[in-house]
C-alpha cells in the first residue's frame, strides 16, 4: 500500500511541477459550451462522447492544480485497470512497476504540440470497459464473439480508434488462457469494417485518421508516442502475467530506476523549454500576475522580442525603460517560428498589443489565434475581440463573441463586462494605424491617448532599439521641457555631440558617466544601460 501511495504522489508531483501549464492550454483548446446545438453536434460524431467528456473535464484545467489532480486520477485508473486485467489470468498478482510503462508515454504525449487530452481519457475508459467486459465474460459465454464485437464497435463510436486496443487485449487474454481468440478476431474484423465505413461516409479525411491515434490530435502530425502508449499497455499486461513470480524488491527497484531514466531522457529530447515558459507566462498574464512574470525571467543571452510577455510585464509596472536592457532585446520582426509555437505566439502578441492600445494588431493576432484553435473559441482572445470590435464600430460582431462565451462556465461574466468596458476604446483615428510602421503607429496611439503609459514605453523602447537618430530627435522635439528618461539620455550621448546633448536636456551626470565609460571606468553598472545594448546585444545594428 505504501508503494502505491508513493507512486501516486510521484505522478502528481511530476504532473503539477512540470506539465500543469501545458494542461492549462488544453482548457482553451477544448472549451466546453453549455449549448444544446453544440453538444448535439459533437455527440453524433465518431468519438463524440469522448470529445464531450474530455471537453467537460478540461474546462476545469483553468486551475492548474485541478488539471494536475484530474490527470493523476486518469493515470491511476489506467494503472489499476492494467493490473486487474492481468490478474484475470494470474489470480495472485501484486502491483507491478511495469504497469507504469504506458503512463510514461502518456506524459510524453502531453509534450507533443498538437496532442489532445482526448487520448488520455479514451485510453482510461477503454481499459475500464475492457476490465468490465473480461470480469463479466461468463454472463454471455455462448455469444462471446457477438458481445466482443458489440463492445468494440461501441467503444469506437463513442470513444474513437482506441477500440483497436480493446480488440487486441481480448485476443491476448484468450491466448494467455490457452483459448483460440475467436471473439477478438471477429471484433477486429468488425472494427475494420466500421473504420472503412466511417471513412467512406466522410467522417474522417483519411483512413489513417479513421483507424489510428491520429484522431486524438488537433493537426495531422506524427502520433508515434500515442501508438507506443497503446502497445506498452499490451506489453505491460503480458509482462505482468508471465513475471508474476518475480517479486524481488531489488528487481522492481532497478526496473523503476531504468524506466525513470529512459523517460527522463526522452522527455529532455521532446520538451521545449521556450514553449513551456511561454505557457507559464500565458497563465500568469491571464491572471494579471505581472510581478511573477518578471521574477520568472532571468537575464539570459537568448533573444527577447520587444513584443513579449516580459516587456509587457515591465511596462505594466512602469519599468520597461529602466530594465529592458537587462535582456537581449530585439526589434519586432516577422515571425518565422514553426507551427508548433505559432498559437502560443499569437496569444501573446494579441495580449501585448491590446494592453498597449494597438487595437488593429491586437485584433489581427487574436483573430488568427482563434482560427487555429480546435474549437474556434480561444476564450482570452475572444474576450479581447469584444472591446476591440466595439471600438471599431462593429458592435454586432462583439455581441456574437460575447454570446459564444456566455455559454461557458468561467467566461460568461467576463464577456458581459467586456461589452461595457471602455477602458481600451481609443479614438477612431488610432484604431487602424497598422499601415505606417511600428514607431508611427505608437506615436499616433500616444497622441490619441496621453494616459496610455504602456504605449508610451513601447514607443520610446522601439526608437531606442532601432537606434534611429531622426526618430529620436523628433521624439525629443515633441517632448520639450519634459525630463528625458535616462535611457533616452544615454542614446543621445551616442548619436549626438556633447553640445547637442546639453541642448536636448541630457544631464551632466549622464554625460560624465559616458565619458567615464569610454575610459573603462564603472564597468559594473554597464550591462543595464543603452550603451551595453549598442555595444554587445544588438546584432542587427552591427550587421548594418
Task: Name some characteristics of this structure.
544 residues, mainly alpha, two-stranded parallel ribbon, 30 helices, disordered C terminus
Give a short synopsis of this structure.
With 544 residues, the chain is mostly helical.
Overview of the structural elements:
It is built from 30 helices and two strands. With about 550 residues, the chain is an all-alpha fold. Helix 7 (about 120-135) runs parallel beside helix 9 and helix 15 packs across helix 16 (about 310-315). The radius of gyration is 29 Å and the shape is elongated.
Query: What kind of sheet is the major sheet?
Result: 2 strands, parallel
Helix content, binned percent: 55-70%
Name the beta content range. under 5%
What sort of overall outline do the alpha carbons produce when their principal axes are compared?
Answer: elongated
| Mean pLDDT over the residues | 86
Radius of gyration: 29 Å
Distance between the termini: 67 Å
Distinct helical segment count: 30
Strand order of the largest sheet: 1-2
Question: What is the number of E strands?
Answer: 2
Structural class: mainly alpha
Low-confidence stretches: 540-544
Topology at a glance:
Layout: H1 2-18, H2 20-29, H3 36-43, H4 48-58, H5 64-87, H6 101-110, H7 118-135, H8 144-159, H9 163-176, H10 182-200, H11 207-211, H12 224-242, H13 249-270, H14 273-286, H15 290-296, E1 303-305, H16 309-316, H17 320-323, E2 328-330, H18 339-355, H19 359-371, H20 379-391, H21 395-405, H22 412-420, H23 438-448, H24 453-466, H25 469-478, H26 486-495, H27 498-504, H28 508-518, H29 530-537, H30 539-543
Parallel strand pairs: 1-2
Amino acid at each position: 500500500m505504501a508503494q502505491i501511495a508513493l507512486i501516486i504522489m510521484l505522478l502528481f508531483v511530476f504532473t503539477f511541477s512540470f506539465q500543469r501549464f501545458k494542461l492549462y492550454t488544453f482548457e482553451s483548446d477544448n472549451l466546453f459550451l453549455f449549448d444544446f446545438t453544440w453538444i448535439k453536434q459533437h455527440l453524433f460524431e465518431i468519438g463524440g462522447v469522448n470529445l464531450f467528456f474530455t471537453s467537460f473535464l478540461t474546462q476545469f484545467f483553468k486551475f492548474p492544480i485541478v488539471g494536475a489532480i484530474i490527470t493523476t486520477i486518469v493515470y491511476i485508473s489506467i494503472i489499476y485497470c492494467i493490473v486487474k486485467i492481468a490478474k484475470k489470468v494470474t489470480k495472485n498478482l501484486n502491483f507491478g512497476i511495469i504497469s507504469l510503462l504506458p503512463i510514461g508515454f502518456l506524459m510524453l504525449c502531453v509534450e507533443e504540440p498538437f496532442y489532445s487530452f482526448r487520448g488520455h481519457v479514451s485510453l482510461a475508459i477503454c481499459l475500464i470497459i475492457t476490465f468490465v467486459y473480461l470480469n463479466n465474460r461468463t454472463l454471455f459465454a455462448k455469444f462471446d464473439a457477438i458481445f466482443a464485437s458489440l463492445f468494440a464497435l461501441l467503444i469506437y463510436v463513442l470513444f474513437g480508434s482506441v477500440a483497436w486496443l480493446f480488440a487486441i487485449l481480448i485476443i491476448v487474454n484468450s491466448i494467455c488462457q490457452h483459448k483460440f481468440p475467436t471473439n477478438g478476431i471477429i471484433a477486429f474484423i468488425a472494427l475494420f469494417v466500421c473504420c472503412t465505413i466511417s471513412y467512406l461516409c466522410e467522417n474522417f479525411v483519411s483512413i489513417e485518421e479513421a483507424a489510428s491515434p491520429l484522431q486524438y490530435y488537433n493537426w495531422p502530425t506524427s502520433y508515434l508516442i500515442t501508438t507506443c502508449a497503446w502497445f506498452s499497455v499490451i506489453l505491460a499486461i503480458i509482462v505482468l502475467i508471465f513475471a508474476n513470480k518475480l517479486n524481488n524488491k531489488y528487481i522492481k527497484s532497478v526496473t523503476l530506476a531504468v524506466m525513470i531514466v529512459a523517460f527522463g531522457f526522452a522527455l529532455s529530447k521532446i520538451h521545449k523549454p521556450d514553449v513551456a515558459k511561454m505557457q507559464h507566462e500565458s497563465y500568469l498574464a491571464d491572471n494579471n500576475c505581472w510581478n511573477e512574470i518578471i521574477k520568472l525571467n532571468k537575464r539570459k543571452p537568448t533573444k527577447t522580442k520587444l513584443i513579449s510577455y516580459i516587456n509587457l510585464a515591465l511596462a505594466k509596472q512602469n519599468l520597461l525603460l529602466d530594465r529592458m536592457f537587462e535582456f537581449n532585446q530585439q526589434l519586432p520582426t516577422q515571425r518565422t517560428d514553426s507551427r508548433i509555437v505559432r498559437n502560443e505566439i499569437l496569444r501573446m502578441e494579441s495580449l501585448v498589443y491590446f494592453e498597449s492600445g494597438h487595437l488593429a494588431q491586437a485584433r489581427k493576432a487574436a483573430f488568427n489565434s482563434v482560427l487555429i484553435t480546435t474549437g474556434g473559441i480561444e476564450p482570452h482572445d475572444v474576450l479581447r475581440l469584444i472591446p476591440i470590435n466595439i471600438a471599431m464600430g462593429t458592435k454586432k460582431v462583439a455581441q456574437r463573441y460575447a454570446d459564444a462565451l456566455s455559454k461557458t462556465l468561467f467566461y460568461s461574466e467576463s464577456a458581459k463586462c467586456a461589452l461595457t468596458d471602455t477602458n481600451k476604446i481609443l479614438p477612431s483615428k488610432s484604431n487602424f494605424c497598422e499601415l505606417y510602421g511600428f514607431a508611427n503607429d505608437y506615436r499616433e496611439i500616444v497622441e490619441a491617448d496621453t494616459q496610455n503609459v504602456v504605449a508610451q514605453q513601447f514607443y520610446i523602447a522601439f526608437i531606442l532599439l532601432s537606434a534611429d537618430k531622426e526618430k529620436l530627435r523628433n521624439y525629443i522635439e515633441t517632448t520639450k521641457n519634459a525630463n528625458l528618461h535616462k535611457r533616452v539620455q544615454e542614446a543621445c550621448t551616442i548619436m549626438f555631440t556633447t553640445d547637442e546633448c546639453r541642448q536636448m536636456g541630457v544631464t551632466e551626470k549622464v554625460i560624465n558617466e559616458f565619458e567615464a565609460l569610454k575610459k573603462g571606468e564603472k564597468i559594473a553598472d554597464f550591462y543595464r544601460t543603452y550603451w551595453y545594448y549598442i555595444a554587445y546585444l544588438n546584432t542587427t545594428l552591427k550587421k548594418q
